[in-house]
Design the sequence.
């Protein structure tokens, strides 16, 4: 499971969220996110990247927790894990997914921009430790990630009653070293727009490629977030839009955030 767009981003004094994001949590502040998703696929991308029918429909369900805590104003501790179940033509599975612990360090920040570095370690579980792999395959992972983000005021042509009053962009690049699975290079992009104090619209892309000239994937996700004081609700839809040796999956994602 990917806990997508879920950790603290401070954009010129406004809090939003993204996993291992460029903006870290302030000292003593915390955030916990519970998320659920159901991904279904009847097709997958073959070795040449062309869609092809799967032997049987595939469904992957996951419910997870992501938590982060500001150890200092520049260092944030992050923990995430999930419980998974699903079935495809070859397996019917249920069990814990990978559990990951990591630290994000704020390398640079000004009033609108930020850069951070993340290092994490993951223990594999009985669920899918990679979307392209069978359940239970994989043992342990190390990840190094760099994130950079920038906040902006709304463009003049769209600012106003119906347009966003603040926007931001964040890019991430990561190297994941895996034991029992091929190493990976990953890249993520997030575009966000705030509509007043209580609404946030997110458009994201998540991509990756394995070192063995095997699987590659690109997923797109759009979601809406409603802030309710210290709570937030997120609902969206994710779909695989390109890849190789990976399922062409899509489905809903929902999340509940709580800030402390």
Sequence:
């Amino acid at each position: 499971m990917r806990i997508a767009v879920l950790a603290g981003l401070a954009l010129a004094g406004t809090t939003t969220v993204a996993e291992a994001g460029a903006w870290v949590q302030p000292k003593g502040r915390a955030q916990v996110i519970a998320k659920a998703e159901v991904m279904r696929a009847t097709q997958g991308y073959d070795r040449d990247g062309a869609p092809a029918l799967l032997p049987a429909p595939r469904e992957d369900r996951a419910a997870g927790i992501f938590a982060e805590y500001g150890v200092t104003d520049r260092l944030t501790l992050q923990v995430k894990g999930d419980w998974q179940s699903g079935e495809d033509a070859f397996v019917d599975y249920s069990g814990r997914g990978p559990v990951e612990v990591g630290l994000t360090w704020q390398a640079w920040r000004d009033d609108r921009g930020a850069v951070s570095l993340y290092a994490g370690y993951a223990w594999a579980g009985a669920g899918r430790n990679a979307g392209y792999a069978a359940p239970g395959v994989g043992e342990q992972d190390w990840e190094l990630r760099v994130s950079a983000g920038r906040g902006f005021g709304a463009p003049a042509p769209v600012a106003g009653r119906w347009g966003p009053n603040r926007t931001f962009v964040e890019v991430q690049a990561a190297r994941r070293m895996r034991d029992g699975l091929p190493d990976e290079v990953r890249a993520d992009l997030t575009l966000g727009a705030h509509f007043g104090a209580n609404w946030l619209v997110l458009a994201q892309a998540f991509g990756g490629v394995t070192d063995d000239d095997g699987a590659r994937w690109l997923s797109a996700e759009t979601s809406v977030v409603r802030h309710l004081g210290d709570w937030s609700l997120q609902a969206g839809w994710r779909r695989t839009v390109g890849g190789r040796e990976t399922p062409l999956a899509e489905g809903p994602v929902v999340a509940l955030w709580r800030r402390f």
